[in-house]
Amino acid sequence: MFLRTLSGRFLLLTSLFVLLAEAMILLPTVANHRRDYLLTRLEKAQIASLALLNTDGMIEPGLERELLANAGVFNVVLRRDDQRRLVLSSPIPAPIEATYDLRAPTDFELVRDALHQLFRPANAVIRVIGDPVRAGGQFIEITLETGPLRAGMLETGFRVLVLSAVFSVLTAILLFLAVRRLLVKPIQRLVARMSAWAEAPEDARRLIAPSARITELREAEEALATMQRQMSSALRQKERLAQLGQAVAKISHDLRNILTTAQLFADRMDESSDPGVRRAAPKLVGSITRAVNLCETTLAFGRAEEPAPTLSRFMIAGLVAEVVEAEMLSARAARVDFVTDIAPNLVLRADPEQMYRVISNLVRNACQAIEATGKPGTIEIGAGEEEAGWWIRVGDSGPGLPARAREHLFQPFQGSVRKGGTGLGLTISAELVRGHGGQLELVRSDAQGTEFLIHLPRELGEAAA
C-alpha cells in the first residue's frame, strides 16, 4: 500500500536515481584507483632503480629482491640517454598477458582497461610503461601481477557502493519528508476540503479560499474555487427554478379551473343574436381552449413530461392565418405588416396545437423586437415541402438578437431579449419541434433582422412515433 502512495513512489524513485547516479560515478572512481595504483608502482620502481644506479650496479641479491618486493614488481626497465637498461629483475611466474601505456591515456581507455581488469578474476602478469618522475629518464617499464590490483579495485568499488547506498537512503528520506510537507500534505488538505464541500455544496462557508504557496497547487485551488462558485450558483438557481416550477404548477392548476369556467360561458355566446358576438365567439372559444391546453402543458412541463405530439394532417396556411389574425389584435402589432408565402393546399403532418404554439411564439417574439425599435417592420412567414419533409420559416426586419441571447438562445431564463422576459418561449418551442423529430434553428440574426427555420421530417422518429 505504501508504494501506491505519492510519497512511497517518490521515495523509491529517489533511491533508484541516486543509486544510478552513484553507479555512474563508480566506474571513473575504480579507473582512477587503478591508475593511481600503477603510477605508485612506477614511482616506487623508479626509486628502487635509482638506488641501484647509485651503487654502480653492484647490489646484493637479497637487497635486490627486497627492493622489488617493496615496489611490488618483478622487473624494472629504465630508458635513459637512449639506452634501455634492465635495472632490477627477478623470475616472472607467467608470461606477460598485456601491456598498458600510462604516458598519455584517455579517460575512455582508463575506464575500458579498468572494466577489463575487473572481469578477469585470474591473476596475470602485465607490463606497464610510464614517464619517470623528475625527468629521471625517457620512460620506465615494470612488470607486475594483477591480483593485488584487482583486490584493491574491488575494495574501492565496494566502499563507493556502500557510501552511495547510505547517501541515497539519507537523500531519499530528506526528499520524502520535504515532499510530504510541501506537496503531499497540501494535496491531502485540498482533497479534504473538496470532500467537505461535496457533502454540503450549498454551504458558502465550505468554499475553498486559495492559500497554497506552490504555484501549481494555487492554480488548482483557484480553478476549484471557480468551479465551486459556479456549481453553487447553478444549484441555487436550480433550487429557485424548482420552487418556481411548483408555484407555476399551482397557478396553472387554478388558472385552468378558471378558464374552464370561462369556456363554458363562451360556449353560450354562440346563441347570441348579435352578429358581432356570434363572429367573435369561435375565436374566443379557441383562445380559451388553447389557454386551457397551455395550463395543462405547463403542469406536464412541471413534471418534466412534455406530452407527445398528436400527429394529424392539416393545411398549414389556415393555422398561420389564425396565428396572424390573433397577433394583429394585440397592440404590439399595430405597426407590423405580415407577409405570408404559403401554398393554400400545402398539407403537413404535425400536432396542430403544438405547431400553433411554436409559430405563435416566434411571431410574438418578432413583434416584440419590432415594437422595441419604435419603427414599422415586417414579419414574413413561409412554408414549403421538400423530399425529406417540411419547413416553416419565420423572419422579421427587427434589430437582430444580441450576442448574449444568441449564446443562450434555447436555454430557459437566459435567452430572453426583452426586459422582464423569461426566455421560455424559444425553449418550449424547440422542445416541441424536437418532439416531432424535427429541429428549430436560427438561420441568421443581424441588423437586417432575424430568421428562424423549422424542419419537420417526413419519416416518423422515435419521439414523434
TrEMBL record:
Subcellular location: Membrane
Spans traversing the lipid bilayer: 158-179
Enzyme Commission designation: 2.7.13.3
Database matches in CDD domains: HATPase, HisKA
Coiled coil start-end: 217-244
Major subcellular site: membrane
GO cellular component: plasma membrane
Name of the protein in question: histidine kinase
